[in-house]
Amino acid sequence: MIEVGKDGAAWVLRLNRPDKANSLTAEMLERLAETVEAAHEGARVLILTGTGKVFSAGADLEAARAGLATSPLWERLSCAIAAFPGLSIAALNGTCAGGAMGMMLACDLRIAVPGAKIFYPVMKLGFLPQPSDPARLAALAGPSRAKLILMGGQKIPVEEAQTWGLIDRIVAPEALMDTAADLSADTLAAPEDVARGIKALCG
Description:
Number of strands: 10
CATH topology: 2-enoyl-CoA Hydratase, Chain A, domain 1
CATH class: Alpha Beta
Distance between the termini: 33 Å
């Protein structure tokens, strides 16, 4: 359900549970976190994507009822992505919802296919978001828009999210991974210390 592809220093993590809208179980979250942590030493580019028409619906419904919605695994994963010293790219093949937003928000770049939506219905479901997610969302889109999503419960089309700075580029589905590869090329070609240094300077 988590596929890891390695092309030299470029790693692709693909959610592959399309029959369940790529919803995440505890086992999937743990595998993602462990892989991203390993990528700190073995990769220079990390690309997150999914199979099918949804990037991820967030927590698997049955697992959420069993406590996954508030598991520290979400924070562990998003913090591992945020701390990745290379270039991280969320290549959203479709809608990104709930806790899966933490992965997207922690990435350096976010590209998406047309028609996808972004939403995080934690308040409606009676949960607090993971600790780092609201601040990352506000840093990208602004505090009011963060509240629009988290408190107003709005589903934001990626076309609108791009005008907020939440999505960096919208590309056709068939061009999604080629675009991610193009965005990775300079980082992979540069001396590793230069790429890491530029990322550190960007904050």
